[in-house]
C-alpha cells in the first residue's frame, strides 16, 4: 500500500516529511537549551508551526494521490497557523507581567537588566 | 522509501517529545511548563498525522483537529489566568 506511488511524488512527500521532522526537532532542542524564557518562547512557537506545516503538506500530497483530496488536514494547518501566534503572544504578555529573569543579551524593558540565567545550575 | 522516511520522522518526533518532557519537568517557572505543554500537544498532533499516513486511514485527522482546538483553548486559558488572575472577566 505504501510503495505504489510514482517516484517523483514519493520523493516530494519524503522531502516535506523530513523537512517537518527536522524543524520540529530543532525547535524542541531550542526549547530545552536556550537560556531564558523569552528566547525559549521564540524557538518552539515558530519551528513547531513549520514542522507541522511540512508534515501536513506531505500528508496532503500523499492522500491526494492515493484516496482523494481531504479537507481536514488543510483545516488543521490553517487552524494551527492562526492560533500559534495568538498563544505565543499571550504567553509573552504573561511572562512580561510576571517579570521573569532575563539574560543580559535579551533586550530588557525594565530599568536594570539582570545579568544571569534563570536556570538553577 | 516512504516507509523508511516515516520511521525516521517517528524517531525525530519522539526525540522532540522527550526533550519537551525534560523541559516540562525542569522548567524554573510555571510559564515554561505551559510552553512545554503547548509544544507537546503540537508535536503529538504531528505524530498522529504521521500515524494516519502509516495506517493509511484518514480517521486520525478528526482526533488531530480536536487536539489542536482543545490544546489552544487550554494554553490561552492558562496564560490568561497567569496574566489576570481570572479566565473570564
Number of domains of chain A: 1
Distance between the termini of chain A: 51 Å
The CATH architecture of chain B:
Orthogonal Bundle
Tell me the Rg of chain B in angstroms: 16 Å
β content of chain A, as a range? under 5%
Overall 3D shape of chain B:
flat
- What overall form of chain A do the CA principal axes indicate? elongated
At the fold tier of CATH, the topology name of chain B is Helix Hairpins
Major β-sheet of chain B, in short? none
Mean pLDDT of chain A: 82
What's the overall average pLDDT of chain B, rounded? 89
Rg of Cα set of chain A: 19 Å
Run of helices and strands of chain B: HHH
Structural class of chain B: mainly alpha
Helix content of chain A: over 70%
> How widely separated are the two ends of chain B?
53 Å
pLDDT < 50 runs, ≥5 residues of chain A:
none
Concise description?
The complex is a heterodimer of chains A (121) and B (89). By secondary structure, chain A is mainly alpha-helical. Helix content of chain A is 70%, strand content 0%.
Task: From the structure above, extract its key features.
heterodimer; A: 121 residues; mainly alpha; B: 89 residues; 85% helix; flat
Folded structure, characterized:
The complex is a heterodimer of chains A (121) and B (89). Chain A is an all-alpha fold and 121 residues long. Chain A has one domain. Chain A has three helices and no strands. Chain B has one domain (2-84): Helix Hairpins (Orthogonal Bundle), CATH 1.10.287. Chain B is built from three helices and no strands. Chain B has 89 residues and is mainly alpha-helical.
Write the layout of secondary structure elements.
The complex is a heterodimer of chains A (121) and B (89).
Chain A: H1 7-33, H2 37-66, H3 71-98
Chain B: H1 2-26, H2 30-55, H3 60-84
Helix pairs in contact in B: 1-2, 2-3
